[in-house]
Amino acid sequence: MLMKATNITWHNQHINKKERQLLHGHKSAILWFTGLSASGKSTLCVEIEKRLYALGMSTYVLDGDNIRHGLNKNLGFSPEDRSENIRRIGEVSKLFVDAGIITLTAFISPYRRDRDIVRELVDRHEFIEVYVKCSVEECERRDPKGLYKKARIGEIKDFTGINAPYEEPIDPEIIIDSEMHTVEESVNHVIKYLKDHHYIELR
Q1: How far is CA 70 from CA 51, 64, 66, 85, 109, in A?
Q2: What is this structure's pTM?
Q3: Across 134-189, where does the E strand assignment appear?
Q4: In angstroms, what is the C-alpha Rg of the chain?
Q5: In a domain, 20, yes or no
Q6: Active-site residue, 109 included
Q7: How far are the Cα atoms of 43, 118, 135, 148 from residue 49, in angstroms, in the given order?
Q8: Any idea what the CATH number is for the domain that residue 86 is in?
Q9: Of 11, 145, 184, 199, which residue is most buried, by most CB within 10 angstroms?
């Protein structure tokens, strides 16, 4: 994206990311949950954060709907706005990683290119793509917000999975099949990944 601001200088800080990670007692990373609406992304983020918090980890959840109430309230759901939505969240997530915090994000983020751009913002292994896999049929059956119903009757345009595309991850670090596994099983799977790959250390 073209930078419009001029006469600006990057200021280095005296405390670096590794020092902040040492203070927190664990590595920082982005857990990027992607999947259709109603696939279970937000539910998983909340439950995983609760588990990490109980283990003494420093965390924060960035949820798609919550972000659109503030930072991204001027964006709609056109392809261009969706990409800008993810770009901004990627930059915010990068700041959280620099602060030494495990950041969980729950965004449909339907386009692979946008997710790949976020991956490139941080160091290798600091972006963990979590594909919450769920069929359109099951998501539509759940439909807790009634969005699929509105999309079917034309009240919502450009709705992912109905009249807008979703590009599945090709090689995500984690796949959660929310039709096959319970929330608890899914949480355990993610926590195990973080332990096995030495992101978190039990205190």
Answers
A1: 27, 11, 7, 12, 18
A2: 0.91
A3: 174-177
A4: 17
A5: no
A6: yes
A7: 10, 21, 25, 28
A8: 3.40.50.300
A9: 199
